[in-house]
Amino acid sequence: QRPAPSSPQLATPAIERRVNDLLKQMTLEEKIGQLVQYNDSGYQSATSPTQIAANPEANNNVNSMDLASSGRLGSMLNTVGAERTNAFQHAAVDKSRLHIPLLFGADIIHGYRTIYPQPIGLAATFDPDLVQSLARMSAEESTTAGIRWFYSPMVDISRDARWGRTTEGAGEDPYLGAAMARAYVLGYQGTSLSNPDSVAACVKHFAAYGAAEAGREYNTTDMSEIRLRQIYLPPYKAAIDAGAATVMSAFNALNGTPATANRFLMQNILRDEWGFNGLVVSDYTAVMELVNHGIALDAATATRKALLAGVDIDMMSHFYDTKLPELISSGQVPMSVVDESVRRVLRVKFALGLFEHPYARGTEVTAAVPEHRPLVRKAAEESLVLLKNDSAGQSQSVLPFSTDARKIALIGPLADNPGEMMGSWSGGPQLADVVTIRSALDARAKQYGGSVTYAKGTEITGTSEDGFAEAVHAAEQADVAVLALGESGAMSGEAGSRAYLDLPGNQEKLLEAVAATNKPIVLLVFSGRPLVLDWAAQHVTAIIEVWFPGTEAGSAIADVLYGDVSPSGKLPMSFPRAVGQEPLYYNQFPTGRPPFHADLTKPPGPDSRFVSRYIDVPNDALFPFGFGLSYTKFSYGKVALSRPTVPLREANRESAKKVITATATVTNRGNRTATEIAQCYVRNLGASVEQPIRSLQGFSRITLKPGESKEVTFDLGFPELSFYNAESNAVIEPTHYTVWIGGSSLSSDEADFNVTP
Amino acid sequence: QRPAPSSPQLATPAIERRVNDLLKQMTLEEKIGQLVQYNDSGYQSATSPTQIAANPEANNNVNSMDLASSGRLGSMLNTVGAERTNAFQHAAVDKSRLHIPLLFGADIIHGYRTIYPQPIGLAATFDPDLVQSLARMSAEESTTAGIRWFYSPMVDISRDARWGRTTEGAGEDPYLGAAMARAYVLGYQGTSLSNPDSVAACVKHFAAYGAAEAGREYNTTDMSEIRLRQIYLPPYKAAIDAGAATVMSAFNALNGTPATANRFLMQNILRDEWGFNGLVVSDYTAVMELVNHGIALDAATATRKALLAGVDIDMMSHFYDTKLPELISSGQVPMSVVDESVRRVLRVKFALGLFEHPYARGTEVTAAVPEHRPLVRKAAEESLVLLKNDSAGQSQSVLPFSTDARKIALIGPLADNPGEMMGSWSGGPQLADVVTIRSALDARAKQYGGSVTYAKGTEITGTSEDGFAEAVHAAEQADVAVLALGESGAMSGEAGSRAYLDLPGNQEKLLEAVAATNKPIVLLVFSGRPLVLDWAAQHVTAIIEVWFPGTEAGSAIADVLYGDVSPSGKLPMSFPRAVGQEPLYYNQFPTGRPPFHADLTKPPGPDSRFVSRYIDVPNDALFPFGFGLSYTKFSYGKVALSRPTVPLREANRESAKKVITATATVTNRGNRTATEIAQCYVRNLGASVEQPIRSLQGFSRITLKPGESKEVTFDLGFPELSFYNAESNAVIEPTHYTVWIGGSSLSSDEADFNVTP
């Protein structure tokens, strides 16, 4: 049987009636128009000689305004600003025969004008409610510019730090990824898609794009159906279940079939299994790229394969509009398929209320909104992950700074760099809005009678050491050196794959030079991905991973450095010791020869050779998934389970939501109020198919006063306990489960139960 | 329908009669005895607390002599020497009730006492006839010690240089891998298994062990069925088709199911599809390790899963003998399954003629055989791959050395190191047999009135620079410095995974120090895998990859350095520029955004960003698959095809062997006789499933005199032109093919044809 429609808002009888009424009036050209998308320059360059050869027309310029005026354009991308969107919208609504409004989509990934952390940073908050609020906020801002569709959230699981788009997603874990995916969709789409301040979410990239082999952008992906379903698909599914109106097909091939021509993904799974009733748009020129993938020798074949596989809208390829007419007239594509795709597009437009309010709403937001600053500052604070905090021989840890008068040397190419606080995908914000670290620390230090001496030291990808001496001198004169090092925003994001994961340029050399002063060092790491911080972890006093924090970067960092806020972020991805460990993730399979208690820091000896290991680096992450320190200390009590066994018949149904409950008491053992992210991990031993050594199946943010205790509770049911068997069906079997509750993926407090036959 | 039995020698009516007659007489205990294998110390240690808990008996000592005497032992491993094998054999034959002989297996990977290069080095020869001769030779040597079963060939495709067992296989390519697999089997098994100097081949490790994730030994593997069939299975299939009598199940899990409990692999593919009628043995304690894999909570379950999946012999786990009795009495394992496994074991023993000649044959070989030295020297010569050969500002390339009097500085920890000439898996040879580089070059230099000054410089994993000065001094005094650097044998092989692929220890520093003398430098690289040679490739005059050459290491290297032989080896694996490129292989999928002609040596610019690339290293290999220089220069003429099109109905049948023929003329443009390995690559565009950018589908060794030309011919049929479609069936579709013929995977001479509908 077919499942219920994923979005009830797209399935109302009223919408269905309007869609069908309109469809009846449409010419073939107008229908095809709804299935194409251009940007406002209208030009799309074929990306290769092969492509140009495959479809000479595909290299023609198109005039988007003409197309809009004549009903031959359905949607537009990255047309920004109310004036421009309204101009195109007037052309469509006023001039085209059927007055069908355009839908304006844009790459709004982490805020429109008030910018919050990159998605990888938001994932570190483990705070879906916060993410939902931020998503709502950016929808409210963007809709004032006429944008009603975000190409977000990117929910691709990434287990390889080399891949650049790690920065756009929630990291390596399917459970966390699903929670984040849901939060974005609920925030973007609001209480109703039809609200003028709602935007349609576009879940991307369907599917498994994050598994790009060797971490190289756009590279092929290949995996078993079990891995696809167990690791990669859950966040997409969560987004669809949350009502996401649209999906974007991915650039990559999966098991030899490009995602953009993959009927198994878009029809069998997305529509037939999950009941998705929204529209699917290709990624940018992805239909054209089917020629490069080698599964189409010409544009007509690429068009046919993409449409029949389930891509409704051709983004920028200029293939659908040039090739569908002949494919339909020759019978290679049935008109019914085109009609169904048009229906999907129109459903979304009706559901968004575009026919009622096609234009940008209210007063256009053109700069960071003051009322939104507290929220993005909170987000940035929560995204910071404290990785190390030693005392450097003093009586207490270097962080937080005491409020005594204190001299700070602020060093590094990211210390006074407003543009780079944003990371990738942030064309919109104005640099003047950004609070840099330097400005925030300057203000804070003065407040306490201290001072900040700034020295850039080097460039992000610098080779010159000319600035080192100034930086070292500043450190020598200071009580503490704060180094703001790391990547530029452009080093991650799309096509930001790296084969080296070190600090770029000569920044590590700068760090070594400053560390040689023996002053306490606080390293702030900017990155869109896990970096190799091996040297720093051994030699630096304190390390905070700050990702790219956004508009309030400096404020949030100052809040954490000075202890106004205790850091609470936890890593959403494993930080490797060496790039040669990638892909690296916590929820591995056990192998037949786990290293158990072998000391992997030493070369193999007689008893430690024939185990699953490298001979030159330990297996584990330098900083593991779920890890993050606080300014206080949390302790965990014993894990308690609501019962020792669960009968299989109770558990093994999709509707079984709470078959067993795990609880533990968390206590704040320190002397300041702080927030902890308690995490619940599960392992399943004895199943018919190998299972990960542990898998996150719950988390909970709790704020505790000094000495305070609270119980955290995790309900485990079919979603948490099931796995995919060799036939790729989700099942629970009579097996043995272990449950851990703790502050990272290394938590050791556990309890066990059996599912009994 | 069932296919024909893979080995007719195991399927004769006479053998079947004898097997059934014997089986009828056997007690359950005697049957189980045939299904267990121990070494002669008899002890196997459970490798983990979990395993001991799972089966306390599994940690008991067993007495192999007692077991053999009482018919409770079927085969033994790594019992070496005629005296010891005969002693055990006498116990079995003379004392046990049914007098069933033992079968002695051993890890004879690259020779018994006369040692030839590691399999990765042999793969570089592209010379299956040579490999067959070497395999024959080692069978002849080993059978004098009673060994009739080799745990070889390892045919695991390895596309990740981090994995240590790259050294034991034929590298990254399925076509080359299949050719080598076939050669080993034909050599080991000879004209008839029943010859006393034949050994049964054991094809390992079934299956896909080489795809260990992140290159970490024993790690899980996960892939689509298409990739499994198209890339990983062909070498196994070739070995089975060549009549291999036995197969070893692998340590790894494939898509969540451990290979040792994987019925899809061992029954559906191996036996049902391929008609394999030999026996399957587990890898060492692999049955026990099913507990660690987490798919069995106890020894009985592990035993049941392994046997029912198709593992006939339990190597060293002590699970089958302790657990099968209760599994049979409880009906969890049918007696018919045990009987069938016993039949498979007995078939191999009868086919080997063990009942007629159970003991070690002839005079035992205990040291390198003088008559065998020319063959292993030839193998070592052919295995050397010349990667670079510059002139260092002189009128001609540094290699080969002129025979003028010449002073050589011979430097490095591998220059005078007999033990390390062997690589891993070489317990047997005597060091006194080995010709080191130092001894061979000493002799050769004297012959021409030159001299060799030796300086070790450093240790293989050295940190001290104390020896650098002596090495630098030696280079300063010499005409040329030869540096023998690289890995120890133990750095590759089983459990030899590395996260770093650089020269180990401080060897690169030594190289840099010697290179600073500005003397011509010849770098000899010892390794069981591709290393990162980026610095060397830029700064060193000549580089030869020598792998681990074996007993005649020094002689072969001297032959090549002095030009007695022009190097002819070609790389069987891609050498990366950085470990962060791994897995790296030439037969990649194209992606939708190939970099085309973008200059990837530069950071991305506006026109070179959004392509499949890294931002910090070019995509390609430093030295690609199939690459290797010669002392002469070969040119290739145009590729000619026997016809421009092939009708689909002619091509799309398994039996279609030569549907089109590609030819090209190769000319020796230099002034010395040399051998070239001409390679034929194919690409298929427009198929229903994405295909590699090129795939090796033929190669040919040709020796040409100066100025001589020869035509090379490659017949292409269903095996070369078919691929696996989305339903995992091998098919040919009406698509467009390109054929290249040239001297590496970068060859650019091509011709095209279509398969027409």
Structure notes:
Two copies of one chain form a homodimer. With 757 residues, chain A is α/β, with parallel strands linked by helices. Chain A is built from 23 helices and 27 strands. In chain A, the strands form six sheets. In chain A, strands 9-6-5-4-3-2-1-10 form an eight-stranded parallel beta sheet. In chain A, helix 2 crosses helix 14 and helix 8 runs parallel beside helix 10 (234-241). The radius of gyration of chain A is 26 Å and the shape is globular. Chain A starts with 12 loop residues before the first helix and ends with a strand.
Summarize the entry for a quick read.
2 copies of one chain form a homodimer. Chain A is of the alpha/beta class.
